[in-house]
Amino acid sequence: MSTLPSLLHPLLPTTLPTILLTLLLLHLLHLLLYDPHRHLPGPWHARLSPPLWLHHHAYTGDESTQISRLHRRYGPVVRIARNDVSISDGAALAPVYAEKGGFLKAQCYRNFDFEGRATVFSALDVAYRAVRVKAVGSLFGMGRVRAGAGVVEACVERFVARLEGRRRRKKGGTRVDVLGLCRALALDAVSSYLFGRGFGGLEEEEEEEEEGGFSAGGFVDFFVAVGRFFLLPPWLFEVVDGVVGWVVGPDWEAEESVRVVGEFARGLVEGVGEEGRDDDDDDTFQARLLRAGIEKEEVKVQIEDLIFAGTDSTGMNLSMLCWNLARHPHIYRTLRDEVLAADAQDPTGTYHPLTLPYLTATLRETLRTSLANPTRFPRVVPPQGLAFYSPQAQKPFFIPPFTTVGLQPHTLHFNPAVYPEPRKFDPERWLRAPSAEMQRDFFPFGVGARQCIARNLAMMELALAARALARSGVLVGAEAVGEEVEILEWFNSRVRSGRVELVWR
């Protein structure tokens, strides 16, 4: 028996690679033969594990473009990873996101937790989220938002004044970044309306020599960058986040911005009941959560989450509105004519801007093309699976249980079968009897029970800003810089250059 190791030893160098290769081939054969998704079309690499292709494109910021290309090649249902399926047929929106409350969010949403706590956005537990939404939900209803429009309009007036000041100072071809200014407006509007205290971003923008330097900018960019790792399993996200932080080192500017926003949020929580009002009379977002029994540390986190979401997406959409109006002067003239005519009929200016057809169409076209959130909103298929008929493919599909499935605005909004000349910025398309498919596939805020809770507030901000931009004439003579605004296609898109620029001649 003692001679057995010595007899085997010469064989190990040659047999070990063979054994490993055999095990690998057997594993791949098992994946192929016992694959519940093998009937779904898609590239060969989607059958393998792990989903390196998907994570690579998520990190490099072209995930949405690559998935749209797969749909053009393989059709409306595409397997993009071993357990991931993308759908481009809007007929699937209702069963995935709306019917019976929609499918549950995928585990990767936990990567958007703040300070280890689930937010109204990132929560997977329906009951956990319901308690918080019940406490604050009425603040986001359209009737309530319209009643508080004066607070938002005051912020919009300061925004237009800042933009007008830059127009005067920079006239003559100097580039002006409007992204930072639009973010500042979005932050001031959401904080003034929901928290009862403005952040003061527009005042910071006025004081800054360089545009885009307001103190919450680093905070927003920091959490936008989380999107490059959004699809990772939460346990791996924690590992990667730690490794990246160790390798790259601290970003002192971002950390200072996170600290400033955190102090603002903490001050809002601690200030409940300290301004001469009874707690029961305080109708702010933070007071409502505290009355619902939510502990202070979590309320602070929920505030930070709203600051991020309310600043980034609306800031992006508003900056793209400015850019597109400058790029298309005839659209700006038509919008301006409509607003001035409405002002003449109602000199008080109290009419709701969304009653103006061309203004509303311009906003819808902005939301369709700006891609503030371009990627899939992933959900988990329930135990019974997903069976749906695709009008695009003219055949039924079955998605197995527990598959991660989703649709993305990038593909839906640029589908030429639904939106002819999809890359063209054309508000008129919404005035020419838009098809049912156009209405259905319009997907900027999501759909169903988990769609953006602040969508009505965001639309009010955009509508009031569009009216003020038209009324003031501040964009007369403005030109958009560049043929397009290039973005990194993370969950929240990021402008590659960090700037959305205009010039006044």
TrEMBL record:
Q: Which cofactor does it need?
A: heme
Q: Which Pfam families match?
A: p450
InterPro entries of this UniProt entry?
Cyt_P450, Cyt_P450_CS, Cyt_P450_E_grp-I, Cyt_P450_sf, Cytochrome_P450_monoxygenase
Q: Which SUPFAM superfamilies match?
A: Cytochrome P450
Give the transmembrane region(s). 12-34
Which Gene3D superfamilies would you find in this protein's record? Cytochrome P450
Keywords for this protein:
Heme, Iron, Membrane, Metal-binding, Monooxygenase, Oxidoreductase, Transmembrane, Transmembrane helix
GO molecular function terms noted in the UniProt entry: heme binding; iron ion binding; monooxygenase activity; oxidoreductase activity, acting on paired donors, with incorporation or reduction of molecular oxygen
User: In its keyword annotation, does this UniProt entry include Oxidoreductase?
Assistant: yes
> Where along this sequence does the record place binding of heme?
C452
**In which domain of life is the source organism classified?**
Eukaryota
- Similarity section: Belongs to the cytochrome P450 family.
Protein name as annotated: Cytochrome P450
Organism, by scientific name, is Teratosphaeria nubilosa
Upper lineage is: Eukaryota, Fungi, Dikarya, Ascomycota, Pezizomycotina
